[in-house]
Amino acid sequence: MAANRRARAVAAALPLDVLAERLAGSIVTPTDERYPEARRVWNGMINEYPAAIAYCESVDDVLAAVSFAGERDLAVAVRSGGHSVSGASVVSAGLVVDCSRMAWVRVAPDERTARVGPGATWGTVDRATQSFGLATPGGVVSDTGVAGLTLGGGTGYLSPKHGFASDNLRSIDVVTGRGERVTASREHNEDLFWAARGGGTVGVVTAFEFDLHPLDHDVVYFESWLPLDRAVDALGEYRAYQRDAPAESCVSPYFARVPERIDAAGGSGDAPAFPGQRRGDPALVLSGVYTGDPDAARSEFDPLLGRPSAFAETVETMPYVDLQSMMDEDFPAGRRYYWKSVPLADLSDDAIAMLRDAAECAPSELSTVVIWPMHGAVERVSDSAGPLVGRDAAVVANVEAAWDDPASTSANVQWVRETCRRLRGLGSTAGPGALPNFAGGRESDADEVYAGHAARLREIRGRYDPDGVFAYERD
User: Fold this and answer.
1) N or C: which end of the chain has fewer CB within 10 A?
2) CATH of the domain at 10
3) Is 43 among the domain residues?
4) DSSP letter, residue 423
């Protein structure tokens, strides 16, 4: 394979022994037996061949790796959890700076803050913060890296109450493309801090400091599965509910195929089986989380439960850490994924019908279409706080293809792109741009993702990385 041969040639021409002497960590190259596994990331669709992977164990290691790459005109990709759907955490014929070994979390409960290493996952953060009855908004899959999700905005069940993950950043420590150590916050290097709040790669972030919020009780999760022909009516009622939804409520309906079993309790297998005749059918799932007082959840969700047409329904009270890992089995490493998002100013009847039709014709039974709410703290944050766009949307439609057969890649990618193109053609979008964590593959450019903020983001990147050491989305 040409990409593999090129990676080997680049690696052979590099004095990697020089880098190895500078690192406390280790290096993997194309000739190592560990390379086939080391080059892989969570998304099985990504097939890149780096010249070397530097496993860093400290900030000094990161500095050494970035300086080495800059001196030799090597493109750098930064990897923590490796969950970037677009494949941003690996680069062919370049250097992967892998921070997965820097997976520490230090909680200051009195100050309600946490400092987090770049290799930590949300599962690690949630367990550490919940031991003090605290939490911060994170992803919905526990092995997702904190770094990538936060730098891409980061939506989660606590977002209506407390904003995106990036909204809860207090400061970051960064190794820049100039090979300098920089701290950025609202008071220092404000431009870099602005870029980090959703702008993707801004260097190698070697520490994140987050605000934490009280969450010392269980949360409530519900699912109600409805036939596809009830989607228009049910989502119309959801639309009415969402207009006044409290910040403690995060209701995110989605379209999916009916599985063998309903497993909303997080893999326990105790929930009843679906009716046999429904298995494999496309369905609408009214799904939501209440993060306030659990006793208030049932009355809050009553308008969305108990429909005669619902053929499976569950309401579960569970610890927050269980909620955060509940979806892990649905997103295994190695499966192929391609996701894009469209912010919608209104969940119109036409948009509902289009999403329903898209779900019905999805080429993979593993794919979903998720309607994510954008109310509460998300919309209260100023659009100028960072490069993220779409805060004024009512909801964001995430079109998420997932498949296992490599031969069906083109069909699944085309389904996502065509669905998003048709949604944007409705005229009910909240403007250009997309959630960076759901921006598609590397064909996306800064203008497509960040819209009116793209020029400022490019200018900031250029000042901190004048030689273009880091690999960004297509520019």
Assistant:
1) N
2) 3.30.43.10
3) yes
4) H
